[in-house]
Write a structure and sequence with these properties.
seven-stranded mixed sheet; 195 residues; alpha/beta; globular; five-stranded parallel sheet
Length: 195
Amino acid sequence: MTAGEATDTRSMRERMEAGELYVADDPEIGEASAVALDLMAAYNATSVRQAPLRRLLLEQLLGSIGEGTELRPPIHVDYGSNITIGARCFANFGLVALDVAAITIGDDVQIGPNVQLLTPTHPLEPGPRRDKWEAASPITIGDNVWLGGGAIVLPGVTIGENTVVGAGAVVTKDLPANVVAVGNPARVVKELTDG
């Protein structure tokens, strides 16, 4: 811990939510994670015939979820409370949304199977990593985006509205609206027109 960190009176959770370095195994953060893990396990154990229960569990787990949005289990989150999902979205099986920082998903977003939205970051230096320091940067997904199966969105990325991210793409930097992006790292290969 540095001298500046030693005089900081904020909790580790406050530091985490501000996108600053924090210690990952802090007890308050661990309790928030445990609550999320319990809700996530309950949600993942539901069947399609339990729609009202599924909705209730998602409302308890997530920061907010819009009308008509469906997330097929299993889903995996760190806290859930830092995730906002708009209306009429669909996420296929296996969504991983590590929400150390905010994950904001617009309306009408389609998410393929096994997509990963990853906000956490770790220091490059070995000492701070060994001491369990980490941080995070938010992810924003615009309205009507389609994330193909197995796509990975890295910390700090914003994807503009109507953009399509190809299956297996790794999005390392912001993507503008109305494009198709593919590859690792994802690169724009086509502009989209309304039609």
